[in-house]
Amino acid sequence: MVMEEDTEVSGLTLRNRDGRKDCLKINGCGNVKMEKVESENVKMNNGWFMNICGKRQGSNNREESELLFSILSSSFDNITCEDESAGVIDVEKMIGNVEFSNCSFRGCSSGRKNGKMISLMRSKNMQMKQCLFDGKEERKKELNGEVDVCKWNGSVVDVKESTAEIKDTSFLCNFDGCFSIWGGNAEIEAGNISFNNPSIEGYPSLRRNIICSDSGILNVMSLKGGDGALPNTSMCILNEGCAFEGIASERDSSFFIPVLESVEAREETDKMKLTFKGMLLVPCNLSFSVVKRKGEEKEIEHYAFDSNGFLSEREAEGSATKDLLSGCGDEIEMSEHILFGNAESPSSTNPFILKYASETKGNGDGSIVEREKGSNSSLVLIVCTQLLNHF
User: Fold this and answer.
1) How far apart are CA 356 and CA 380, in angstroms?
2) Model-level pTM?
3) Which of 14, 208, 329, 351 can pair with 177 through a Cys bridge, CB separation 3.0 to 4.6 Å?
4) Burial class of residue 319 (count of CB atoms within 10 Å of its CB; 0-12, 13-18, 19+)
5) For the chain, which residues make up each domain, given as ranges?
6) What is the pLDDT of residues 75-93, one digit of tens each?
7) Residue 265 vs residues 269, 320, 332, 355, 367: alpha-carbon distances, Å
């Protein structure tokens, strides 16, 4: 179906069909209004389900800012686009204003990485309100190195070189990613971003929510639920070179915020083995430092975590040189805490206090035992993880 110029469509129903090319293609420079469109169980072998081509050069004298493409009170259920370059709705360029209101996308899928449901490029402004993007079915993924844990390249809504205002909209169970913005500005108000879990083994709390890149600006104004709704909790926003405003700029980290619950240490032949336990101990460019303090003097050494030291999001292991503990007497107090966020001025979790006992006064096996609070310390050992890039 191909439409030209000014177009209004109401009550269109598309169900149970296969398509080899764009199912609905709109050309030209007119205003397009689609209302009460119901689409269900449509499979596209090639092309987009809906392709909005925007303004054609020289077609008439109307300014781009005057043009409006809108979809109102419509539903898109189980739309499948197998083409790796196509998704459900494509707004290519040169549309002044785009509006999605009271629309739902449930169980839709696409071979495309970014913009599986909606792809917007070089439009003046997109307004989205009271919409739902529900991936519905969980898909399992295998852990395949650090990249799968720390980075992703996928979204259901993709905005390039445009301005987007997203209000009262929910992104649920979209396991390849929710929203991406590249070189534009986006505002999120009363958002709900929940359950976007890529199902990576050992990391059940990881989410793939938002990618912000190419000098874009993301302003999370308010959240009505989901990830980040509670104070200083993780938002799972991947920063690939953008600026934050609003809630994301106020958090200790816009990506993930770890919690340290305990540290266990054990003396081995030539090193100290340290085991960190907590929540969201994620292998995303983390390292730890050891600070030896006696009076006014301190000595700092930096370490990488052990190879294969990240056992899960609840446990990680690292090793420090045993020489750092020499010459400090029989009792050593150790305070461990995690640093994260901005590498230049990282935030810190609450410390965890341990005592190092020598073989003559300890457990007899070179292990670490707890120490009574308030005891004098001859050394403070600060063990921390630190994000080396700026999430």
Assistant:
1) 10
2) 0.83
3) 208
4) middle
5) 2-250, 259-387
6) 999 999 988 888 899 887 6
7) 13, 10, 12, 9, 6
